[in-house]
Amino acid sequence: MGGTRTSSKKEMSKIFHIIDLDSSGMIDRLEIAKYMKNNYPNFPIVVVDLFLMLADKDGNGQIDKKEFADFYKVVQASVATDMDLVDIVYTATSVSEGSENITNTRMVNVLRCLGINVSKEELSNVSFNKEDFQKEIEQFL
Ligand SMILES: [Ca+2]
Q1: pLDDT per position as a tens digit, 114-129
Q2: How much distance in Å is there from the Cα of 69 to the middle of ligand 1?
Q3: Centre of ligand 1 from the C-alpha of residue 34, in Å
Q4: Which parts of the chain sit beneath pLDDT 70?
Q5: Residue 4: its pLDDT value, please?
Q6: CA of residue 62 to ligand 1 center, whole Å
Q7: Domains of the chain
Q8: Residue 28 Cα, ligand 1 centroid: separation in angstroms?
Q9: Which of 3, 12, 52, 134 falls between 20 and 30 A from 113, CA-CA?
């Protein structure tokens, strides 16, 4: 197991450097969007934006290696299991949150990123597990 983890970490690092076109040590939306378009044309670009929004705590539009590692986990899982959009969005959100339960504040941000404007008060729950999340999103899509 340890060996596998090391090699996937190395592979991830290699990919990060490929994406980081200007070698700034950070990747921005354009760099990541370009890479995803070339390598994973079916991956929803809205999830790239969503992940940037979730991962980018200081709002400068850049993601670092650690944040990218989380994003890459989502990409790999979605490719391996052929997830649908709602599934990918949920996975991206929960991976970035480090929790399977998503708060309604976060849910509002996720929905906004998908172009859906709702207020916290309009949501039925204060915390969403996967099933709640799917129900809530499907209601708006
Ligand atoms: Ca860069």
Answers
A1: 889 999 998 888 999 9
A2: 15
A3: 12
A4: 1-6
A5: 56
A6: 8
A7: 2-140 (1.10.238.10)
A8: 6
A9: 12
Predicted local distance difference test score (pLDDT) of residue 82: 86
Q: State in Å: Cα 73 to ligand 1 middle.
A: 20
Ligand 1: distance of its center to the CA of 35 in Å?
A: 12
Q: How far is the CA of 23 from the centre of ligand 1 (A)?
A: 5
Residue among 24, 25, 50 at smallest CA distance from 36: 50
Two structure tokens written together for 118: 């709702």
Residue type, position 75, single letter: V
> What are the beta bridge partners of residue 28?
62
Could you give the CA distance from residue 13 to residue 31 in angstroms, rounded to a whole number?
15
The 10 Å Cβ neighbour count of residue 105 is 11
- CA 72 to CA 100: how far, in whole Å? 18
Residues in the chain: 141
Q: How far, in Å, from the CA of 139 to the mean position of ligand 1?
A: 37
